[in-house]
């Protein structure tokens, strides 16, 4: 088997991922990055592996390379916008969204704009995006998940939870919705339920900073500092590295 063959690389990546060997899959795709870039689907898989491993810098560098190869490709744009938003570069996120919207109309771009408002603390603007889109796309899954995030920011945990529970009936493995569900349980004082969900999420993505931080908060609530402190240390170390 020649690993320069994209089909072979893709097959071996799938084998690694089925065995929960995400680091081996990442290393494989990294070693053959020049070939991987010629296949957008495979390249996006490497981006997503970087993101799930907490390697946002590597993800951003690869996305910027891909942007030159595939201009205005939504799968690239949406991931770049998310990284820009999370790192406080809302100006770059806004410019990228507006540039792509000139060529394409897609609800995902509008949701990305709403998330930009949300992450900047502009809750009224974020809610306005939800209201306008809900009229056109009342059953859109991503929009409903975004709506739950807005409601959480408005301290409407019970209302958000109803939406999330309904979403998880359709997609029980949806990571972000499960994290939002844990958030609502924590807000409502159901720390045991939140802890169980967060421990499951942490087992799936041990590098996810928000999961680690909230789980540490709950451990601290129970005065279980031996478990809380290592989580907080790794979150802080990642911030310093970033």
UniProtKB/TrEMBL annotation:
One Pfam family this sequence matches: TPR_19
Give the species: Psychrosphaera algicola
> What protein name is recorded for this chain?
Tetratricopeptide repeat protein
Classification via Gene3D superfamilies? Tetratricopeptide repeat domain
Residues in a coiled coil are none
The regions listed as transmembrane in this protein's record are none
């Amino acid at each position: 088997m020649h690993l320069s063959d994209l089909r072979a690389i893709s097959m071996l990546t799938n084998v690694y991922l089925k065995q929960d060997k995400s680091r081996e899959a990442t290393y494989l795709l990294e070693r053959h990055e020049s070939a991987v870039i010629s296949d957008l689907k495979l390249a996006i898989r490497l981006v997503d592996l970087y993101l799930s491993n907490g390697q946002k810098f590597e993800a951003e560098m690869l996305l910027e390379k891909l942007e030159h190869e595939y201009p205005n490709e939504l799968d690239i744009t949406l991931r770049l916008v998310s990284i820009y938003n999370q790192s406080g570069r809302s100006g770059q996120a806004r410019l990228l969204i507006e540039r792509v919207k000139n060529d394409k109309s897609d609800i995902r771009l509008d949701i990305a704009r709403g998330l930009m408002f949300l992450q900047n603390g502009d809750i009224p603007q974020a809610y306005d995006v939800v209201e306008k889109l809900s009229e056109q796309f009342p059953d859109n899954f991503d929009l409903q998940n975004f709506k739950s995030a807005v409601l959480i920011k408005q301290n409407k945990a019970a209302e958000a939870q109803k939406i999330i529970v309904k979403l998880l009936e359709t997609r029980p493995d949806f990571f972000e919705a499960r994290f939002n569900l844990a958030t609502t349980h924590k807000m409502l004082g159901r720390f045991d339920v939140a802890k169980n969900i967060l421990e499951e999420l942490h087992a799936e993505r041990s590098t996810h900073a928000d999961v680690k931080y909230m789980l540490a908060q709950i451990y601290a609530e129970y005065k279980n500092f031996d478990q809380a402190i290592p989580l907080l240390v790794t979150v802080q170390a990642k911030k310093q590295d970033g």
